[in-house]
């Protein structure tokens, strides 16, 4: 009787040279597209910043602007640039980057284009903390930043717990956030109705979102916070991108899903609180930045693109708010709210067609 024949173990077929070449070519095209978009957004931001600084109600010629920036000019332009237009522009860029990054983190981690700090009430939570600090305790500066941070993180923690903890369903988490934002908005109105009229007026201007009171002290405070937060965002970006593909695949790639999700959401809340405590919870910048970046990138969402789009939105909106209507300077939040409503409708219609 002959011995049974043992089949040889199966070995996976090596990918063909053509397949490897196609994959490498695709990666190369993706990198080139990413670099082109990055350079394009930087160019748009540079043009928008120049227009905001030099082309306001008081037009500053390019030679004069260069002289002002070099501290080699005396005259009205020196005061206007250094004390009004340049601080507004720089603060708009920094806070726009923070709002854009926060929106990207929310939408990527929760895999929902409607999941943003505005929609989920995080901005309202930060707003409640700041309003209480301004109207009840008469605080300002870093104290308002801390109160805004406590309010934003407190609301996000309450939403996560109410939705069922760290393992909550994403849809339930989003709906719970919407409900939390509505409750927080009611609390803000209750605080304002019992506040001193002058403090309430300051708080209302802050809630609308404005760059009118931009100062170099505010810029320094936001810049220091971003110097700490941006490296953390860069370190977390690969895991956040993996979460965007789904929990199962991300876990298969070695990502600690729940830990990364909570860390990313906490980081987004801190970014919103830092920006909102200085310029107010400017409506819809966080919501618009990531979808616009994805559209420009052909569906690929990158954190730095969302940050650049957020900065462009803030600077352009502030220019429109200040210069579009003669003799009337609007808060930047009015313009972003008007621009964000059509984007929200567009996303809702697009999701409805996709689910039909």
Task: Describe the structure in your own words.
The chain has helices at residues 17-54, 62-69, 76-110, 122-136, 142-162, 170-193, 197-208, 216-243, 247-252, 257-279, 285-296, 303-323, 332-355. It is mostly helical and 356 residues long. The chain has one domain: ABC transporter involved in vitamin B12 uptake, BtuC (Orthogonal Bundle), CATH 1.10.3470.10. The protein starts with 16 loop residues before the first helix and ends with a helix. The model has no long low-confidence stretch (mean pLDDT 83). It is found in: Cell membrane. This is Iron ABC transporter permease.
Short description:
By secondary structure, the protein is mostly helical. Helix content is 75%, strand content 0%.
Query: How many helical stretches?
Result: 13
**CATH fold field value:** ABC transporter involved in vitamin B12 uptake, BtuC
Residues in β-strands, percent: under 5%
**How does the major sheet shape up?**
none
Fourth-tier CATH superfamily name = ABC transporter involved in vitamin B12 uptake, BtuC
What series of H and E elements makes up the topology? Answer: HHHHHHHHHHHHH
* Number of extended strands: 0
CATH class: Mainly Alpha
The rounded Rg comes to: 24 Å
Shape: globular
Task: Quote the average pLDDT.
Answer: 83
Integer tally of domains: 1
Subcellular location: Cell membrane
Transmembrane segments: 37-60, 80-106, 118-137, 143-163, 219-237, 262-290, 328-349
Protein name: Iron ABC transporter permease
Keywords: Cell membrane, Membrane, Transmembrane, Transmembrane helix, Transport
